[in-house]
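re: ur question from yesterday

yeah so i grabbed the chain u mentioned. its 103 aa long if i counted rite. heres the sequnce exactly as i have it in my notes:
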Amino acid sequence: MFTLSCFYEPWWAYLLRILFEGSAELMLYATPVAICAVVWDVFGNKESTPQDMTVLGLDASAETYLPSGNSVFPLWTVLLYLLTGSVTFGIGLLLFNAVQALS
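ran it thru and got these structure tokens back, copy pasting raw so excuse formatting
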């Protein structure tokens, strides 16, 4: 028998619902773990670092550790960034084509 629905749900609404439900379930597990990690980092790690060293570099003399404003990246660093980006983009295209071919 043909049923007439009063509400038309677009095709992407189901995908968004699955995404939000999965994200909410992940947050149920990830939030307590993240809170415990932050609390441990703040309160439990004080003995492992020397007293005169700041881990985040937020002390008063932090500006002396910054490189000068006219520093230039080495050529190998720029090439490594470009190579990494190109390889990552290529892998993404390969996976996209594989999913399209399999579906």
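noticed a couple things. The radius of gyration is 25 Å. also The chain has a mean pLDDT of 77.
anyway ttyl
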